[in-house]
Amino acid sequence: MKTYAVKEIYYTLQGEGFHTGRPAVFCRFSGCNLWSGREEDRHKAICQFCDTNFWGTDGENGGKYTAEKLTRKIIEQWPLDSTPFIVFTGGEPALQLDSELINELKTIEAETAIETNGTIELPEGIDWICMSPKANTEIVVRTGNELKLVYPQEGMDPKDFETWNFDYHFLQPMDNAEQDANTLICIDYCKNNPKWRLSMQTHKYLNIP
User: Fold this and answer.
1) Catalytic residue among 3, 39, 41, 51
2) Considering 27, 68, 107, 131, which has the largest number of Cβ atoms within 10 A of its Cβ?
């Protein structure tokens, strides 16, 4: 029987992108295809600016689950009498998210979203696709709801993505030692290229998960 390795599951507000401020249950899968998640390997990672801990299964509600048990655990975190909004993230959630789990969630009429690097084909049935391209990768997810580009990112020009079939295009300042300067660069770019919107990681300012 297939199991899913999960780092953590928690209820919070979406902190960035189109759904900023929306209540959501985040299910963070373990593992990524662009970095091992171990700090000692960061220097040789394809994506070296990742800011999340997706190593192992030791986070809040972390563990290994079947599709049925994972669905039950996710819904336990949703406190409202309304349609659950579930965000699958990682790491790279497309390594594990599949039709079996999506169909299980559909039995409880959950709304599903994914935050992916776009390098792995996605299963059918995901309600909201947010793709965040990374340099030096082969991107196969070229259509969806939201394209969110961390910027400035060496080797990535926003203009290269403007014709891709996404409903919304976001620039998000790179979170590093130059974050303040990066934010100004993103603001200026969006003002001069109105196809793009600014995405800020509000959860970091609010100090929420």
Assistant:
1) 51
2) 27
- For residue 5, CA distances in Å to 27, 66, 103 come to 10, 9, 18
Residue 107 resides in a domain = yes
| 49 is a catalytic site residue | no
Per-residue pLDDT tens over the stretch 67-94: 999 999 999 999 989 999 999 999 999 9
The question of whether 32 is a catalytic residue gets the answer: yes
pLDDT at 52: 87
List 20, 52, 57, 202, catalytic entry: 52
Look at residue 192 and tell me if it is in a domain: no
Q: In which domain, by residue range, is 41 found?
A: 4-149
Within a domain: residue 167? no
Given 19, 26, 146, 166, the catalytic residue: 26
- Name the active-site residue from 115, 169, 170, 190: 115
CATH code (residue 39): 3.20.20.70
Q: Is residue 177 domain-resident?
A: no
Average pLDDT of the residues in 119-144:
98
Cα(142)–Cα(138) distance, integer angstroms: 11
3-class DSSP string for 166-206: EEEEEEEECCCCCHHHHHHHHHHHHHHCCCEEECCCHHHHH
Predicted TM-score (pTM) of the model is 0.96
Among 19, 29, 47, 190, the active-site one is 47
Number of domains in the chain: 1
